[in-house]
Amino acid sequence: MTDGIPRPEIGNGELDQLCANAIRALAIDGVQQANSGHPGLPLGMADAAYVLWTRFLKHNPEDPHWPDRDRFVLSAGHGSMLLYALLHLTGYDLSLDDLRRFRQWESKTPGHPESFMTPGVETTTGPLGQGLATSVGMALAERWLATQFNRPGFNIVDHHTYVLCSDGDLMEGISHEAASLAGHLALDKLICLYDANQISLDGPLDLSFSEDVARRFEAYGWQVLRANGHSMTEVAHALAEASDEPERPSLIIARTTIGYGSPNKAGSAKAHGEPLGVDEVRLTKERLGWPTEPAFFVPGEVYEHMQLAVEVGNTRQREWEMMLERYKAGHPELAALWEQMQSKALPADWAATLPPFVADPKAKGTRVASGEVLNALVKVVPSIFGGSADLAGSNNTLIKGAATITGEDFGGRNLYFGVREHAMGAALSGMALHGGLIPYGGTFLVFSDYMRPAIRLAALTRLQVVYVFTHDSIGLGEDGPTHQPVEHVMALRLIPNLHVFRPGDANEVAMAWRSALERRDGPTAIVLSRQNVPTLDRSNGLAPAEGALRGGYVLRDAEGARVALLATGSELSLAVAAADLLADRGVPARVVSLPCWEVFEAQDQAYREGVLPPALTARVAVEAGRSLGWERYVGQGGAVVGVDRFGFSAPYQEIYRHLGLTPEGVAEAALRVLGV
Amino acid sequence: MTDGIPRPEIGNGELDQLCANAIRALAIDGVQQANSGHPGLPLGMADAAYVLWTRFLKHNPEDPHWPDRDRFVLSAGHGSMLLYALLHLTGYDLSLDDLRRFRQWESKTPGHPESFMTPGVETTTGPLGQGLATSVGMALAERWLATQFNRPGFNIVDHHTYVLCSDGDLMEGISHEAASLAGHLALDKLICLYDANQISLDGPLDLSFSEDVARRFEAYGWQVLRANGHSMTEVAHALAEASDEPERPSLIIARTTIGYGSPNKAGSAKAHGEPLGVDEVRLTKERLGWPTEPAFFVPGEVYEHMQLAVEVGNTRQREWEMMLERYKAGHPELAALWEQMQSKALPADWAATLPPFVADPKAKGTRVASGEVLNALVKVVPSIFGGSADLAGSNNTLIKGAATITGEDFGGRNLYFGVREHAMGAALSGMALHGGLIPYGGTFLVFSDYMRPAIRLAALTRLQVVYVFTHDSIGLGEDGPTHQPVEHVMALRLIPNLHVFRPGDANEVAMAWRSALERRDGPTAIVLSRQNVPTLDRSNGLAPAEGALRGGYVLRDAEGARVALLATGSELSLAVAAADLLADRGVPARVVSLPCWEVFEAQDQAYREGVLPPALTARVAVEAGRSLGWERYVGQGGAVVGVDRFGFSAPYQEIYRHLGLTPEGVAEAALRVLGV
Asked: For B350-534, which CATH superfamily applies?
């Protein structure tokens, strides 16, 4: 299997093989030109991917956003040149010059696929396992929307999600979570093409991997099929069988030779992650019967054949659009809802439904307020959809009165992700990428670490996703340090383009949700307390919670304020109490609420300096987490009342007291800063 | 199965059942007294755990550190009262009063097990899946040490690793990685007792989970056994069979009733995560035939029977110690090596083997230097053992000339973890906990996110582990933003008790390794560049690299320095070049290298202020990562030349230039700060 000569006996037609080899040649030329990249996967999977793209994939290269297109996810994102070659050859807006600029500054062909850089790239991949789990979210969204919108004769939502994955993808833990969830939910329109090439970066796969992948996926409830990945006939049969399967997701184990066609590197790790080299590129082309010059050569008949995708795609999309027109006539309300959800527009006056919370010194955990806000919102914003990673009750993410999503019935609104934080994170991204949904997912804040790679990709890919992270500090008490996220709020703030909201009371919670729903170009983490915090009485000199929409605001001012007390979340009321103590000592203090740093820092300088005047240099921050990072606001002369160690297992009031997170502690810090 | 009446037909003897019920009663009393905790697991697993602890587990309650003891890991850490009850009843230093103080301030019985708080607790658990993967590391360490040290007639290292896990553990992705790795490595002495109770926090397990766990583990190459978890006979048979298995790890699927014995809550999620309530505690005790008063009652015959563990344990340990004495006589060199590795002591003069690197303006990636240091160190520090997550070549973690660890042969030194960063992280912790090893593991820095929960637990548990994180910034170039860790260095600095070393040249790399090996009470992450950086010429006015051992030092001073340039890693030489430019402009600048903040901050104030004098307020930091956090050192008046966005796919020199990470950019920032 290590030579690359196309053999008629595996059933590939001459033109088909020419097309597959065009993909191969473009891929190795791209990698060679960049002098960087991964030739092995495109060489190995060209045949199978060609079959999928030309005989199965429903898509329109002239409209990469057609809602009912099939999705194709290259989970093994390092094989990006395979995808770029396919996009170019089937007629997407990606030129040969774009391919020549593979991995160059601001090119449309970055080293790993980025959906915001390249038309036709469905999601950003590279970190292994993410694409597979993201595709589960896409398939999940398809099925949920299909259940909501399809009517007899009107399959408005009816497409497959294809994912190409590698050995590395399947080694990652997230692949387990995602595949197990997909099997549980019976996502029959999810089809995974597994490039089983038996090679990993370090060498032969059996250095580290010996599992029976077929048996494993059968255990998850998948259909498992096998094919010689270099036989187009076998791959086509398997894809057809997968498409026909009515109940289970399908895994097609395509046995391939990595670097297929390269005389000296095929079948070895040498073909994996570095350019073949000029000589080996030449030898490979010779072996494939390909002109060695010029680079980036594509025969006219290849274009002619593969760009049929444009005509076919346009025809299919037109047919679908005509169906949609008839649907609008027959089901006008559903059609209107469909269009609204697709557009991501929020209904008029939606924000008026945000519940106002009345002042209450005893009050509730901000997580409880979040649950009330969420339940109010879903009534007017039907695209909100999500669940929790087995903590629905604790995260307050359940939609009351709504049914549970099951493999048999997708008519509900409550999704149980299971104890699968990482797959949940990536699936939320897939749901957002699919369109039609504003997804949310809940877990404890400490477990945001389990899904951090997925959060990062969502932020990079600019996806509207809402994370509901409860039990946000030492305030969860007895569960102890393993469950107390002292560093997580600041660690999340470090992820570019992620908004981290830590609301200080119930009314700020409503504003956090509002901000998250209004934001289209990135994810928002809403960070919530387990323990009760007062709903502040804002009738009495405290500013309205709408200030939170600017990320930070003066909650309470004081004539001639000598010190500013900055706080977030459950420590906001503590700062207010500290200001009272300071007032008693004759020290007027301003209290600044900073629930979302990223939004605050996006305000103009005048606003920011209005909230934190440069002249007001005496500043104390209080937050039940690491102090590192707060120096940005309090300066070197300021103080931070934080938690610079792991927490404790004990009733939370005791932990707060021992760590000095008390009104007295904050007031003392302020006096120290003032040198009083 | 939902009533709790012990039935003779399942083969439990009367005394045995009394002991199991004593565990149950202590557990529910502990949870009730704390008014917080998880009664369901201890009630469900009391029978099986009792059998394991009294008939199989090799341990000595009077010496929890006996090196050849069996390890027991409660992966489902929320069931901590089960473990505390077992420790108390078998005679560990854990009193009834300790049990009464469950989940209270500074008690020895925190909400989740913490190995540094409680004698007999092998590791810190709670975040699901971690315990299972940690136990894989323990079993791996056992096998490696056995291969090194056992000789005919002398099984110095010969013990099992038992792990009790729950449905939630097996849903987590890390369980897939860990179990797949254990199967691949044929860790036959790893035995997992799976509490299959069909209930998760949100309700019946089938809300989210429907996989065939047996089939899945068979796919990993495990032996799978089944038992009624309430039949001591069946559990004992399964444990015996697991112990006899010579090649595969074993999974015992123990079907249990969560909350067994509780008349109104058994078999439901209500028994899972909250106290039963006073009434239900009473009803449960009645159902179990237990005195309802007093709480924390233990019959004398239970103590008598279960504390046999002390006598048996002492006898077995004595026998082992006698064997060790004979071993010392017969194999003195091996025995000396064994003792040295057990003691964690480093050989005399070990640090002299650290290679000095000569100045070289072209030089090498700091990852290359790290590989050379590592290869030098293993020759004198035999306890260093580890590998990489399928990036051995890129991480430079291979031990040259050493063999590969395989399931058949553990005689090598190179471990291939596969693309399993998370399991690798936890396994490293298990190896450190086992003793005899200083484990290291490598991956790209960006994938530290995949293993972050394991890093956090290692830091909390104070384990000596070395993480080798290469490709540490935009400097990796073409692979693009998915692989460029702009936020990860600072995010790691946020984890308490983790040392994050980002050495600036080859000689600082040697110091980073030295610091990591000398540190016994916590992990160290060594953060390394892909791209070449100069090895600084320190003969010429630059301070020696030993300064790095204090975390930060003045690399180059200047008479009347007006500005301090702070840098780490690959940006250190850039700061030096900027200082040259500033000197040309007549602005003397001090260059401060800050490779490890945590170590620097542990220095006394005089030292710190010597490096960064409070009067030298004009400061510029340069690091190819997020600026947030650097305000700690540069103050509000200073500047940070950093990367406050995701990166780009392009040759790295271009990325540096576009982002202003150049000597000119740093010099300009300094001039701006100075108002020049």
From this structure: Thiamin diphosphate (ThDP)-binding fold, Pyr/PP domains (3.40.50.970)
**Residue that is written with structure tokens 């004098």 in the block:** B613
* H/E stretch holding A561: none
A367 touching B (Cβ < 8 Å): no
DSSP A100-112: HTTT-TT-SS-SS
**Count of all residues that appear for chain B in the document:** 676
Indicate the SS3 state at residue A264: coil
Query: Is the separation of the CB atoms in B607 and B600 below 8 Å?
Result: no
Q: Are A298 and A26 in contact (CB under 8 A)?
A: yes
Burial level of B408, CB count in 10 A (0-12/13-18/19+)? exposed
Query: Residue type at A140?
Result: L
> Mutate which of B176, B451, B462, B497 to test chain A, going by most A C-beta atoms within 10 A?
B176
Q: Where are the beta strands (DSSP E) in A417-507?
A: 438-444, 466-470, 499-501
Out of A42-56, A357-371, B218-232, B235-249, pick the least confident: A357-371
The whole-angstrom separation of Cα B446 and Cα B528 is 12
CA distances from B614 to A486, A505, B596, B635 (A): 29, 39, 20, 10
Of B467, B533, B532, B535, the C-alpha closest to B495 is B467
Q: Which two tokens stand for residue A280?
A: 């080996």
Its pTM stands at: 0.97
In this predicted structure, what is the pLDDT of residue B353?
A: 92
- Chain A (474-533) residues lying within 8 Å, Cβ to Cβ, of chain B: 477-483, 486-487, 490-491, 493-497
Domain A545-674 indexed as CATH 3.40.50.920: yes
d(CA A605, CA B10) in angstroms, rounded, equals 74
Examine the predicted complex and report whether its ipTM is higher than 0.95: yes
Which whole-number Å values give the CA distances from B420 to A127, A279, B171, in the listed order?
Answer: 12, 35, 16
For residue A121, pLDDT over 50 is answered with yes
Contact A487 B495 (CB under 8 A): yes
Same fold across B14-315 and B350-534: yes
- Bridge partners of residue B404, in order along the sequence: B414
* CA angle (A471, A474, A478) in 5-degree steps: 85
The answer to whether B449 faces chain A, any CB pair under 8 Å, is yes
Contacts of A244 (CB under 8 A, 6+ apart): none
- Given B172, B215, B481, which is nearest A218 (Cβ)? B215
Q: What is the mean pLDDT of residues A490-514?
A: 98
Domain B14-315 class in CATH: alpha beta
Helices (H), B93-202: 96-100, 130-149, 167-171, 173-184
- Give B279: exposed, middle or buried? Use CB within 10 Å, 0-12, 13-18, 19+: exposed
Q: What does the pLDDT look like over A289-347, one tens digit per residue?
A: 999 999 999 999 999 999 999 999 999 999 999 999 999 999 999 999 999 999 988 99
| Cis bond before residue B152 (omega within 30° of 0) | no
CB proximity B177 to A under 8 Å: yes
More confident position, A541 or A111: A111
CA-to-CA distance for A368 and A471, rounded, in angstroms?
11
What's the Cα-to-Cα distance from B36 to each of A339, A501, B273, rounded to whole Å? 48, 28, 8
Report d(CA B639, CA B619) in Å as an integer.
Answer: 7
Residues in A 116-145 with any Cβ partner in B closer than 8 A = 124-128
Burial (CB < 10 A; 0-12, 13-18, 19+), residue B333, is: exposed
Instruction: Report domain extents, chain A.
Output: 14-315, 350-534, 545-674
CA B669 to chain centre: 40
- Paired with A622 in beta bridges are A567, A641
